[in-house]
Amino acid sequence: MKFHPSIFLILCAFILSCQPNTKDSVSHEKVIENGYEVIQELLIDAEAGSTITIPEGLYKINRSISLDGIPGVSIKGAGKNETILSFLGQTSGAEGLRITADSITLDGFTVADAKGDAIKLQDCKGVTLTNVKTTWTQGAKSTNGAYGFYPVQCEDVVIDNCEAAYASDAGIYVGQSKNVIVKNSYAHHNVAGIEIENCINSEVYDNVAENNTGGLLVFDLPDLELVNGHTCKLYNNKIINNNLKNFASEGNMVAIIPPGSGVILLAAKKVEVYNNEILDHKTMGIGITSFHFTELPWKDQRYDPFTYDISIHHNTIERRSALPDVTKKFGQMVNLLFPGKPQDILYDGILREGNASDNPMNICIKDNIVDDIRFANVDAANDFDNVNKSLEPYDCI
C-alpha cells in the first residue's frame, strides 16, 4: 500500500494548521493551598463502604493522590463547578487521581491540569462516574495529559453525565474492560472525544462529542493483555464538528486521526452504529478500517487485525463543505482519491486472504439519512487501484 502526498497537499497542511487555540478555565473564590495534604489524608483514612466528602473550593495539589484496595468508597464533591482539584503545579506522579479498588463511585467534582492522566482507574470491578469533569486549562497542547477519564482493565463501568476537555489522547477512554456504559456525557476539544479500545460488551449513547479531532472511536489494538474486543453499540449520540487540529504527540495511536473525523472503527468487531447525528465533518463521517491500514507491526499471535460484523444504519450524516484534512495520511488519501470532497462513509476494503465474496467481512450500511451519499470502498490493499462507490454489496443490516 503506497502513499505519496503532493507538494500542494503539504502546503495546504501548513495553512490549515494555523487554528486558534481556545482554552478552558477553572476558578473558585475559596482556594485551599495545601490541597494534597487535605485530600490524601481523607483517602488514607477511608474505610470500606465509606463516603468521602470534599467541600467546595479549589484545591491546589502538587502530586498524585490515590486510593488503593479499599472497596465500596464514594468520593463526592459539591459539584463539578464547586469542587475543583487543580494539579496545575503538580511536580510528581503520573496521574491526578489514581484508584485501584472495587465498587467505586466518583461524583461532583473537577480534575484540572493533571501532569498525566486526570483520573485513572485500574483493575476495578464496579466503577460509577457521575457529574465529574476533567480538563486542561492551557489549551490544546501535546504536553497535556493523555486521558481525561481512564478506566483500564476494569469491569462494570458506568460513565454518566461527565465532561472531558483538552486531553492529548482521548477525553473519555475505556480500555481493556468488560461491560461498559458511557452515556449523557460531553467530550470536546480533545484529540479523540470518546474512545472504546479493546473492550467487550460496550454501549455508548446519548452523548455529545464535538470540536474534537475525531468524535467517537472504537479501536482494537495489538500487544495488549486483552485483545480482540467486540460487541459495541453506538447510538443516539450527537457527533458534531470534530475538525480540531490533531495535537497528539507523534507515536501515539490517535496521532493518525485526521481532523474532520466523525466515527472511526479500527479493527473493530461486532459494532452497531445507529440513530446518531454525524454532522459537519470536513474529512469523513464514518471510517471503517483494518489495523493493516496503519502499516504498523505487531507481535501478538492472538491478534485479529480485521474489522468485521459492522452494522451502520439510520444515522443522519451531513458533511461539511470544506477541503478535507491534508495533515494526516487518511486525510491525504481522501484528497487524492476525491479531490476537495469530504466523504460520508469510507471503507478500506482490506480483506482476509482467500475471501472472494462481495462482502466477506459482513459490513452492512443501510437506511442512513444523507443527501447523495458519498461512499467508497477504497481498495487500500491494492494501492487504491479499484475504488468502488457502489453500496449494493453492503445493503444489509
Report what the structure shows.
By secondary structure, this protein is mainly beta. Among the domains are: 48-123, no CATH class; 214-397, no CATH class. Helix content is 7%, strand content 41%. It has helices at residues 7-16, 35-44, 329-337, and strands at residues 31-32, 51-53, 57-60, 63-68, 74-76, 83-86, 92-100, 104-112, 117-122, 125-135, 147-152, 155-160, 163-165, 170-175, 178-183, 186-188, 192-197, 200-205, 208-210, 214-219, 230-235, 238-240, 261-266, 269-274, 277-281, 284-289, 308-313, 316-319, 343-347, 363-366, 375-377. The strands form two sheets. It has a 20-stranded parallel β-sheet that branches. An eleven-stranded parallel β-sheet has the order 4-7-9-11-14-17-20-23-26-29-31. Mean pLDDT is 94; it is low at 3-18.
Structural class: mainly beta
Q: Spans of 5+ residues with little confidence (pLDDT < 50)?
A: 3-18
Q: How many angstroms separate the termini?
A: 30 Å
Record field, number of beta strands: 31
Largest sheet: 20 strands, parallel
Radius of gyration: 21 Å
Number of helices: 3
Shape: elongated
Proportion of residues in extended strands: 35-45%
Mean pLDDT: 94
| Helix percentage | under 10%
Organism: Portibacter lacus
Protein name: Right handed beta helix domain-containing protein
InterPro entries: Beta_helix, Para_beta_helix_rpt-2, PbH1, Pectin_lyas_fold, Pectin_lyase_fold/virulence, SO_2930-like_dom
Domain Right handed beta helix: 96-243
